[in-house]
């Protein structure tokens, strides 16, 4: 028993030390980067405001959400704090400026996070369609995957095409250098990642897992994750020559050997340092490699930071 409590104390000390390291870095080097003072006049239509004729896909710093559809996961005040990564609905996230969604499903098409479930995936699709109907130039990356430990929903590829067909952007390796104006009126890049079913074919209406990559590590230590994100990003090709989307997740994950296991206080250890991460990317020569940046519990300032760097790229400042 004494060993257990000793380990818990040591883990808390390790977390505190890493939080101090990030705070010290922000105080000493700041979190400034080209475009950091830019604020979109309308987050709901921020792509349109940047001029779609100038905005190519590979210039966009895409604000994304991690476990996007968990706002009603589990039982309130009991299991929900263990799995909820967003409090806003999909529609509310899109209106706020989110443009990359991470959606997990199980065999019956219910949204899930591990063993906990919430609503049917129809709720997600309907929210996306509602947003698309209210805007004209915003492009959304919708990643749908079968959650780890679960089976694929039957005929799910057909379901996605039937529901989103009129909006789907066909997979095309040459798309990344095209301006948004040449891609419209199609609006959705839908990436379907089954666990056992055949993955979507190249050139089809759905994109497969080859086109959205990341280097996720399972840790609750913020400086460890921050450094890992920078390292893996530095190893990527510049966006000008990349033919897939690369995601960095500015998140950390609760661990069972730490006394704090609710998602919000754990992920807040790194979530507040999104601007610092962008600043470090630019200062370390990775400013031309950052593409998708995802977060838990998205807020407007996170969106503004991503849009600001996007604006700077259009203006040739990065």
Automatic annotation (TrEMBL):
Under the GO molecular function aspect, what terms does this record hold?
phosphoric diester hydrolase activity
Q: Identify the SUPFAM superfamilies for this entry.
A: PLC-like phosphodiesterases
From the UniProt entry, list the residue stretches annotated as the region Disordered: 15-39
Q: Which InterPro entries match?
A: PI-PLC_domain, PLC-like_Pdiesterase_TIM-brl, PLipase_C_PInositol-sp_X_dom
Phosphatidylinositol-specific phospholipase C X domain location: 63-175
Signal peptide residue numbers? none
Biological process terms in GO annotation: lipid metabolic process
Q: What is this protein called?
A: Phosphatidylinositol-specific phospholipase C X domain-containing protein
Instruction: Print the organism lineage.
Output: Eukaryota, Viridiplantae, Streptophyta, Embryophyta, Tracheophyta
